[in-house]
């Protein structure tokens, strides 16, 4: 993988953890909002894995 591809995904773990913490904290007060954050995290992971697989496939 090239360095440019790595620099694009540098903050992905931070975004993932942030969405997960937001889902947990918001579900303590309002469950539907927690579900929205959890679905956002799942969607985010799907997009990131697609991006990573495309980057690894373009050697």
Structure commentary:
The chain crosses the membrane at residues 17-40. Keywords: Membrane, Transmembrane, Transmembrane helix. With 59 residues, this protein is mainly alpha-helical. The protein has one domain. It has three helices and no strands. It has helices at 3-8, 12-29, 31-57. The mean pLDDT is 84.
List the helices and strands and how they pair.
Blueprint: H1 3-8, H2 12-29, H3 31-57
Helix pairs in contact: 2-3
Count of DSSP H/I helices? 3
Distance between the termini: 7 Å
According to DSSP, the number of beta strands is 0
Radius of gyration: 14 Å
Instruction: List the domain count as a whole number.
Output: 1
Structural class: mainly alpha
Largest sheet: none
Low-confidence stretches: none
**Shape, principal axes of CA atoms:** elongated
Order of helices and strands: HHH
**Could you estimate the helical fraction of the residues in percent?**
over 70%
Question: What keyword list fits this structure?
Answer:
0% strand; 3 helices; mainly alpha; 59 residues
Short description:
The protein has about 60 residues and is mainly alpha-helical. The chain has helices spanning about 5-10, 10-30, 30-55. It is about 85% helix and about 0% strand.
């Amino acid at each position: 993988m090239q360095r440019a591809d790595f620099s694009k995904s540098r903050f992905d773990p931070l975004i993932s953890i942030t969405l997960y913490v937001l889902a947990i904290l918001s579900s303590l007060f309002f469950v539907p909002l927690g579900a929205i954050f959890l679905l956002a995290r799942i969607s985010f992971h799907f997009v990131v894995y697609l991006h990573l697989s495309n980057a690894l496939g373009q050697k």
